[in-house]
Design brief:
It is a single chain. The protein has 392 residues and is mainly beta. The chain has three domains: 5-126, Immunoglobulin-like, CATH 2.60.40; 135-235, Immunoglobulin-like, CATH 2.60.40.3710; 238-379, L,D-transpeptidase catalytic domain-like, CATH 2.40.440. It has helices spanning 162-166, 342-351, 382-387, and strands spanning 5-8, 22-25, 28-31, 43-47, 50-53, 60-64, 66-75, 83-85, 91-94, 103-112, 117-126, 135-138, 143-145, 151-155, 169-173, 179-185, 191-197, 206-211, 228-234, 238-243, 248-253, 256-262, 277-280, 283-291, 302-310, 317-320, 338-340, 357-361. Strand 8 and strand 9 (91-94) form a beta hairpin. The longest helix is centred in the C-terminal third of the chain and has 10 residues, at 342-351. The chain is elongated. The two termini are 32 Å apart. The model is unreliable at 1-37 (pLDDT under 50).
């Protein structure tokens, strides 16, 4: 348990010297300067105090016999915990929480009921963290993304206090977009939280994430020791509509058809089937090596593939597949990806960007893309998505 230390803050001139005697004040120890009349300065209390105090709490400063006129709480790097003095000047509480392993200096100025000014400082230090939780987030800052891109945070360690973490996550948009956070397991098995709008983003929207996590305890996963911020914008509306029954991919821009491309999807009747539902273009990876053993397919292949566009963590891509040319528009004969000719793939690759939705339909598929398998967020109905928030 932390015991509050109470210090009498003296006038600036007297603060540099200590009086000939130390006299106790209510709740703690105080110092009286030479020639001063006891009881005329405001008495200031700072909580917490001392060394090794538990992080994650707010700083509270109170004044008796007068009012606070200013309060500054800063760490050794000059980063301040902001707060507000109450209307009567009797108290101040930090808006942010203390971080682990940090020394804070509290500087105050006061005025007593008799008009006497005082100033002083105190120092406290928080205990270090046994475990630090880190965040991998998407999209990156200053990027332009498609209308289906969610804000996604994946945590290094488990988050058992999800509500406390979610409270620190703030999304602001230029168009007052309605949306919600939802918790899930990422394909990697790690805890993850995504924010998506109720409907696709409106093109031109500016989005900012402020993850004010520094000083937040995630539970069993440890402490956060920094904040995260990203700002991005939404580009024009482009949607790839993939009809696996007709073996066609149609690119639409702002709802209008730009071009239709013959494709070949996953082979029916087994593990090589494609996923259905809405997938989101995760990344344009260019020329990459594809090896069926990495996705658990027994009929192995190992080849370099051009114009590769990742749609899921489980290995579904849209890409050039010239070896499959005789099946484009005629039959689904791939190992789960959406293949097209070199020329069509090169053109299509130049048209799309991460965040663009792929709306995939077909009778013989292996299921709907799960939320944590890439960005399958849009396959969850809005009402159920809202219930996946820890604050609902």
């Amino acid at each position: 348990m932390c015991i509050a230390a109470v210090a009498v803050l003296m006038a600036p001139l007297a603060a540099c010297s200590r009086g000939p005697e130390s006299v106790p004040t209510a709740g703690g120890a105080g110092h009286r300067g030479v020639g001063e009349t006891p009881g005329r300065e405001a008495t200031v209390t700072v909580v917490p105090e001392g060394r090794g105090v538990r992080a994650g709490g707010t700083v509270k400063v109170t004044a008796a016999g007068g009012a606070l006129t200013s309060v500054t709480v800063a760490d050794g790097d000059g980063h301040a915990l902001t707060g507000t003095i109450s209307s009567d000047g009797a108290s101040w509480v930090s808006r942010r929480k203390t971080a682990p392993g940090t020394s804070y200096t509290v500087t105050t100025t006061t005025v007593s009921g008799g008009g006497r000014k005082g100033a002083g400082t105190s120092v406290f230090t928080t205990a270090g963290a046994d475990k630090i939780n880190k965040v991998d987030w998407r999209p990156g800052t200053n990027t332009s993304v498609g209308v289906a891109q969610p804000v996604s945070l994946v945590f290094d360690h488990p988050v058992t206090d999800r509500a406390e973490v979610e409270k620190q996550l703030k999304i602001t948009t230029s168009g007052r977009t309605e949306g919600s956070w939802a918790w899930m397991k990422d394909w990697s098995g790690r805890d993850r939280v995504d924010w998506r709008p109720k409907e696709y983003w409106k093109p031109g929207t500016k989005v900012t994430l402020h993850a004010e996590l520094n000083g937040t305890d995630s539970g069993d996963g440890g402490w956060f020791v920094r904040d995260y911020t990203t700002t991005f914008s939404i580009g024009e509306s482009r949607t790839a509509v993939v009809d696996l029954d007709r073996k066609l991919l149609t690119l639409k821009r702002d709802g209008r058809t730009v071009r239709t491309i013959p494709v070949s999807g996953g082979t029916p009747g087994g593990d090589k089937r494609s996923w259905r539902g809405t997938a989101v273009l995760m990344a344009k990876e260019g020329t990459i090596n594809m090896n069926s053993e990495t996705v658990g397919l027994g009929d192995s292949y190992d080849k370099m593939v051009d114009h590769s566009m990742r749609l899921t963590w489980s290995g579904m891509y849209a890409h050039a597949a010239p070896w499959n040319h005789r099946w484009f528009g005629k039959a689904n004969m791939s190992s789960g990806c959406i293949g097209m000719s070199d020329a069509d793939a090169a053109w299509f690759y130049g048209q799309v960007r991460p965040g663009d939705p792929f709306e995939i339909t077909g009778r013989d598929t292996k299921g709907t893309v799960a939320p944590g398998n890439g960005f399958g967020d849009w396959n969850v109905p809005w009402e159920r998505w809202q219930k996946m928030s820890a604050l609902r």
